[in-house]
Structures are given as structure tokens and as C-alpha cells.
Specification:
Helicase, Ruva Protein, domain 3; 5 helices; mainly alpha; about 140 residues; rod-shaped
Length: about 140
């Protein structure tokens, strides 16, 4: 087997999801079946298949999910962009809630300042003067 075929197979093994170890690439899967599939991919490259032909062959055998990336369709692109959109929406929501809460706190602080009539103020001041003079 030529070294170029092994290099290309190793590269593809890092892009292909293992049908034997869920959530792992073919390169990271320790199962014997994964080792056999990696050898098959190398032999296909050695036989002269190009990368697209190997991809098509893997897709025929294992389905679209073997590549671990959404296809270039509306639903596939939604798989790429939906998490980012939800993240941004969450940041905006948190910002909105925090700003609103801060504004409400500021308004409540302003409402706690009680307006005192001039008569009441004079009464309080005279009472304070009396108490201070008693000391």
C-alpha cells in the first residue's frame, strides 16, 4: 500500500464519524470494526478511488450521518446556524432583563425619596434643635 493512500485515509478518518463508536470520529474509535473500516478506506485510495468516490461509497454504506456535518440544504444549514442564533438570542434576552431590572431598581430608589411639606420639615428641625440643646 502506498504512503499517499495511508495519509489520505488517515485524513478522512478524522472527518468521518464512526458507525461503531457513537460521538467519535473513525480515527478516535478503538473498536476492531473501526480499524477494519480504516484499512478499507486506505485500500480504496490505493485502488485509485478519489476522495469524492470514497465519500460516496461511505455514504451508500452508512448513510449521510457518517460525515457528522449537515449537508448543504436548508435543513442542514439550520443545523449549523441554529445554535449560534439561540446563543445570540440568549445574550440579548439576558441583556434586556438585566437592563430592565437595573432601571426598575433606579426608579424604586427615586420613589423612596419622600417629599416632606415645609411645615413638617420645620417641625422636624425644631425638634432636632431642642434635642441637641438638651445635650
Amino acid at each position: 500500500m502506498e504512503p499517499d493512500a495511508l495519509t489520505r485515509a488517515d485524513h478522512m478518518s478524522n472527518e468521518v464519524m464512526s458507525p461503531y463508536c457513537p460521538g467519535r470520529t473513525l480515527a478516535a474509535c478503538p473498536s476492531e470494526n473501526a480499524r477494519v473500516l480504516r484499512a478499507d478506506i486506505a485500500s480504496w485510495f490505493d485502488e485509485g478511488y478519489n476522495e469524492n468516490a470514497v465519500r460516496q461509497r461511505l455514504q451508500m454504506i452508512y448513510g449521510e450521518t457518517v460525515f457528522g456535518v449537515p449537508k448543504d440544504s436548508a435543513v442542514g444549514l439550520l443545523g449549523w446556524y441554529a445554535p449560534a442564533a439561540f446563543f445570540c438570542a440568549g445574550i440579548l434576552l439576558i441583556t434586556f432583563v438585566l437592563r430592565r431590572r437595573m432601571n426598575n431598581t433606579a426608579e424604586n430608589d427615586n420613589k423612596s425619596d419622600v417629599a416632606i411639606s415645609s411645615e413638617k420639615r420645620e417641625e422636624i428641625e425644631s425638634e432636632l434643635k431642642k434635642r441637641l440643646e438638651q445635650r
